[in-house]
Each structure stands twice: as C-alpha cells, then as structure tokens.
Amino acid sequence: MKASSSLHPHHHFPSTKLYTSITTRVYIRTQLSFPAKVFLCQAKSGTNGSINVRVMPPTLLAAEKEEAKAVLMLFLKKEGLSNAIAARTVNKSDPFIDHLVSVLHSKHKSRYLVGRELTTLEIRDAIVPYLESLLEEHGDSLVDVVENYPNPPVKEKPAVQVPPPTPIIDSKKLRTVSRVNAIDMTAGNLRPHIVYLIEFGMSIEQINGIIRRFPSFAYYSLEGKIKPVVEFFLELGVPKEDIPTILTKRPQLCGISLSENLKPTMKFLESLGVDKKQWAKVIYRFPALLTYSREKVEESIDFLRELGLSDDNIGKILTRCPNIVSYSVEDNLRPTANYFRSLGVDVGVLLFRCPQNFGLSIEANLKPVTQFFLEKGYTLDEIGTMISRFGALYTFSLADNLIPKWDFFITMGYPNSELVKFPQFFGYSLEERIKPRYARMKRAGVRLLLNQVLSLSSRNFEEALEKKLKKNSS
C-alpha cells in the first residue's frame, strides 16, 4: 500500500509553515504565535467555508508521539536495522516524529474533529504505508532522510540509468533482520528496566507481549521513564502486585511526562469528582484514563451532565467505572441512551447504577435481550421496568445466564409478573442459590415470594419458612 503521493525532498519536507491536506491542515513547529509543538487542526465547515479550529491537547500529542516512535522503531527493525541503530535513529528524529503525527492527523481528520481518539492499530495502519512509500523512493538513504528532516540530503541523478537498488537501509551498518519478538535472556544482557520489572513479578512473557504491541517500551530509560511512574503509583497506594497488570494494560503511561501530563491530568479528574483516595483502584481498573486528552474527558462529562447527572454522581461514576470516558459519545453513549429511553427508562439513573450497559453493542447485546423477553410475553413497558429495577440485567449473557435461569424459573410455578417485580432473580447463582433455596422451600411445603426466596439471609430465610408454616397450620 502506498501513500497518495511519492515523497520528493522539494515538496515532502517543506520549509514552509504548513503540511496541507485537502480539508485539514496541521501546523507543526511553525512561526505562529503558539508554543512549540502545539498542533492545530483546521477544517472547513458549513456552506460559507467557515473554519473550525481544534487544539490538540499536549497529553494526547505526547501519547501519539510515543505511538509514532514505536511504529517507526518497529519499521526500521523489520527492514534490518539493529536495535541500537534503530533506537538512535528514532531518538535523533524528533522533527520527523512530529511530521508522522501530522500525517496521522491528516488521514484521520474527521475522527479528531468529533473528539474520537485513535487506537494503536489505527495509528499503525496510517503510518506504516507512508513509511513504506518513503522506503520505496529513498531506499538505502531513508535513515538520512528521517534524521535530517525537514532538509533531507539531495540525491544526485546518475549519469547512466541503472536498475533501482533493492530497498535496504544502510547496508554497511546492518546485521541480520531483527524483530522485537523476544528479550535476550543471556545472563547479563537484560536491560536494567527489564530486570526492575521482573523484580516486581512481571514475567518475561508479559514483557514480551508489551514490547510486541509497543516496541518503544524495550528502550525506555529505567531512571528517566519507568521507575518514576511506578514509584508514583506505589505512593498512591497501588499494590506492588498490581503494577504488572497496569503496565501490561497501558505501557504508554511510562512514555508520558509525570510532571507535565500525568499529575495535571489527575488534578483535572479530581476537579470533576474522582475520589483521590481511590486512585489506586481507578488506575488498576482503567489505566488508559490518565492518557486521554482533557478534551476527550470533557466531552464525556458534558454528555453525562446532559443526561441530568449531578457533578457529584459523575465523580462517583468516573471512580467506579473510569472506562466510561473511552466510549464515543456519538457512536456509543448517545445511541445507547436513546435505545434505553425508548423502553421508558430514566437513562441518567440507569447510567449511574450500571454504566457498563453503555459499553454494550445495541445490535449484538441489547436488542437480543429485549427480543428474548418480548418472546416470553413481556411488554416493552415491563421490560423497561425490569431494567430500571435491576440495572445489570442487560449485562448478562443470554446463553450462559438468562436462558438457563429462565428455563428453571418456569418450573418454579411463579407467574411471569414475579420477574417484573424481582428481576434481580437473574443476578443470583443458579446452582449455588436459586436451586438450593427453591428445593428447601419445596421440602417445607410452603410458598414464599420470589424476593423472599433469594434475597433473605440464610437465617432470615429459615425464619420466613417457619412463619409461613405456622400461618398455614393455624
């Protein structure tokens, strides 16, 4: 796959202020009155050609630069560069990294304009074809092109036409093709930060997995990047045994400045109501929260307020379910809210009680559950009442939970309306709670409400049976 145009020094590495695409312009290190490395996206909108400007937050840019470095590192290594040379090239190429981010923004301009952040796969799919087009054009001088951006060495045209060389990078410096698939386990060859992580209980398999997904992690400085972040998390109360899980989920955390990004992001989230005493749990549940841009978080918060949630309740939601901010407002949150609203549900209350519902697919998860209950004879209003009374109802698997419990329910002899009154039935274990309690009630020869059978403690359940027996015998 090739980029839309080939890269020639005189027009692909401009000394002008703009890298321009059809509808999006990303400004990089310009002479405008903005700080260095501040990125702006412009897009025409409306019939009058007016311009919308969206400032890319520093936190997002920092994360994207780390992603771009990782992609470039892996690309160079796959083309034959040794670990050391690939790392040195990436470290010497900040302007080119900025340029890769601009390419990323240009390709995905529409996503940024609606506040949707890109996944690692989307970033890779945007940058790799571009790098391949550069390799095809510049061949063994690609390293010089990357390191000297935006003023690459000018290639002289040969006097005699010769067959194009095979695209090999700097053949004099090459070793065999090196891929980041494993860590050298030879004694004494482990990098300091690898040894450090192993001491925290992280396995070689876990570290290999991180490096395969995020190659730059293999070259992070222990003292400059990883150790400060880990020690900061420990100070927050994160248990030592949780560190491997957190870094496995979001290794990008170690590539973001602690003082300029992570701590300010936490202060901002605390201002929105995140309980600072619960940071250890929040980070463990969803470490990616600290890498999201302020703009992305604010967009989610604005939508929650739109649903009528108070700031206090929003703070509780962010603390209990921080991944709510990972859901796209327009692609997930709003359509899901509209769906539940069509069932007569108070969406704000439902989201507060069970925000996990809003990460479910309408087509794959929600509609099949609704259809299941409709086929059992329930009306939409009754289904709405059930989900309102038991917010987690739609989070259960049809095959593993709802269907087998329904099949047992119809043998219990209760009317269907009993589930409208007590939909929490589906939240109890079939084998450990429902069947044993029902069997005990049958042996006693009495009948309790479904709520009494399941929700009472063992002692209170026995007392309810005795009371019912006495009442029946009198």
Keywords for this structure?
474 residues, 24 helices, elongated, four-stranded antiparallel beta sheet, 55% helix, mainly alpha, transcription regulation, MTERF
Structure description:
It comes from Arachis hypogaea. By secondary structure, this protein is mostly helical. The chain has a domain at 9-154. It is 55% helix and 4% strand. It has helices spanning 9-12, 58-78, 83-91, 94-107, 109-113, 120-138, 142-147, 192-199, 204-213, 222-235, 243-249, 258-271, 279-285, 294-306, 311-320, 329-341, 347-353, 362-375, 380-389, 398-409, 417-421, 430-444, 450-455, 458-473; strands spanning 18-20, 25-27, 39-45, 50-56. The longest helix has 21 residues, at 58-78.
Which range best describes the helical content: under 10%, 10-25%, 25-40%, 40-55%, 55-70% or over 70%? Answer: 40-55%
- Give unreliable regions as ranges: 1-54, 155-182
Strand-residue fraction? under 5%
* Distance between the first and last residues' Cα: 85 Å
Family: Belongs to the mTERF family.
GO molecular function, one term: nucleic acid binding
Pfam families: mTERF (PF02536)
InterPro entries: MTERF, MTERF_sf
